[in-house]
């Protein structure tokens, strides 16, 4: 529909009564309803099966990793960033 096809209508007159393509726009909701009904019917016909998640076992390698060095580095970095943020100095 182009902009040239838009025009002012007298008060109380419906644009659908004057528009030749109105039936096309009225058919869209009906098509949507038919599509949704078809999808619901297809979904209901699917046999419901129990889906079991894969059996995953999480285990640490032997010996277990030592996180002390990592934790120490994280703490020092956090303290450094906190001091930089609170100092107010611009880099």
Question: Can you characterise this structure?
Answer:
The chain is mostly helical and 91 residues long. It has a domain at 15-45. Helices cover 53% and strands 0% of the residues. It has helices spanning 15-18, 22-45, 68-87. The longest helix has 24 residues, at 22-45. The radius of gyration is 34 Å and the shape is flat.
Topology, please?
Blueprint: H1 15-18, H2 22-45, H3 68-87
Primary descriptors:
single chain, 3 helices, 91 residues, mainly alpha
* Element pattern in H and E: HHH
What would you call the structural class?
mainly alpha
Q: Give the integer mean of the pLDDT values.
A: 76
Q: Describe the global form.
A: flat
**Approximately how much helix is present in the residues?**
40-55%
Number of strands: 0
Termini, distance in Å? Answer: 58 Å
Number of H/I helices: 3
What is the radius of gyration computed over CA atoms, rounded to a whole number of angstroms?
Answer: 34 Å
User: What proportion strand?
Assistant: under 5%
Q: Major β-sheet, in short?
A: none
| Poorly predicted residue ranges | none
């Amino acid at each position: 529909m182009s902009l040239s096809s838009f025009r002012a209508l007298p008060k109380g007159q419906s644009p659908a009564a004057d528009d030749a393509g109105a039936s096309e726009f009225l058919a869209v909701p009906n098509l949507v309803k038919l599509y949704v009904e078809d999808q619901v019917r297809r979904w209901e016909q699917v046999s419901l099966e129990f889906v079991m998640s894969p059996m995953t076992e999480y285990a640490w390698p032997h010996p277990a990793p030592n996180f002390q060095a990592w934790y120490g580095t994280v703490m020092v970095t956090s303290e450094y960033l906190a001091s930089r943020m609170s100092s107010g100095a611009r880099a």
